[in-house]
Amino acid sequence: MDTAVEQFQGGVSTFQEQLDTLIASVSAERTILAERSEQLKRERQEYEEEKQRVSQVFSGNDKVVLNVGGVNFTTTQTTLQNAPAPSLFAAMFSGRHTLTADQNGHYFIDRDGRHFHDILNYLRDGTFSYPPDGSDYKYLLELRAEAEYYGLTGLLENIDRYPYALIRAQRTSSLNTEDSWMYEDGHDEVVFSVDQPCQLLGVGLCGTEGAYTAELELLEVDPSNVSEEIAKMQDAAQSYTKSDGEVVRLMLQRPALLAPKKCYMISALIKGTESFCCEECLPTVVAAGVRVHFHAWESPNGTTDQRGQFPELYIRAM
């Protein structure tokens, strides 16, 4: 009987300990929930205060006059906020900063006003109206500096599609215009790597006495097995005729970033008449300080690291 009583008392003691632990745990959870509730209330209040500050700066259709380097431009807050962060204008008119206008109510920006009409037009409709075949690269570089200052990443991408600072990495020492290169057995390919970061803007193809269409892919491939594709980076297509010259350009839609210790393949399916041919190609070419190495590889249509298609690559050093 005594043993049974002792066991019962022991069980009651254990149960009480477990109950005390449970109560303490529930109390701690309540404390945490109360703290989180207070934090949410504070964040909600801060959000409402921020929202109120923003609404007090301007209404979206209020006119804003910017004095950019002595040239005045009239626009609206809505236009200036069209570009997402990290846009300078989104920050200026966010309500977080105190803006001071001059005696005329204009906001001064100490930048070159010659370029700001292109900046403002981009903010208005998201397009860049520079001619596709434009070649005033000095202006493009100046405009790029302005776009970078204002934090307009979308405009930077548009500008970088133009081949400013283009460098030819010429792998062929001679272009054979006497013999012809036939297109019957599939893709022509070349495999290459670079020793420092750069951008690939496009490739040069051997011209033709007739006409052909080239469909190109840029691939990242496994350095230890270049037949193994890691990622498709870009594609492009264009048609050419005799009038386009002995070497024709196939430009990518946007610059492709190339990195050291990676391997790349340019693969082109060409349909049409035969073309000229690269001969005595160099295994390594240095252009603008970038070393481009062409790896041993024979493609289905016969292009190798020594002859065939792709007389030159177009790169931009970084």
Word description of this protein:
- By secondary structure, the chain is α+β, with helices and mostly antiparallel strands.
- Helices cover 31% and strands 37% of the residues.
- The protein has six helices and 15 strands.
- It has a six-stranded antiparallel β-sheet with strand order 9-8-11-6-14-13, with no helix packed on it. A four-stranded antiparallel β-sheet has the order 4-15-7-10, with helices on one face. Strands 2-1-3 form a three-stranded mixed β-sheet.
- Helix 5 runs antiparallel to helix 6 (153-160).
- The longest helix is centred in the N-terminal third of the chain and has 56 residues, at 2-57.
- The mean pLDDT is 87.
Question: How are the elements arranged and paired?
Answer:
Blueprint: H1 2-57, E1 63-68, E2 71-76, H2 77-80, H3 88-92, E3 107-109, H4 116-125, H5 137-150, H6 153-160, E4 167-170, E5 172-181, E6 188-194, E7 198-206, E8 211-222, E9 225-241, E10 247-258, E11 263-272, E12 275-281, E13 284-287, E14 290-294, E15 312-317
Parallel strand pairs: 1-3
Antiparallel strand pairs: 1-2, 4-15, 5-12, 6-11, 6-14, 7-10, 7-15, 8-9, 8-11, 13-14
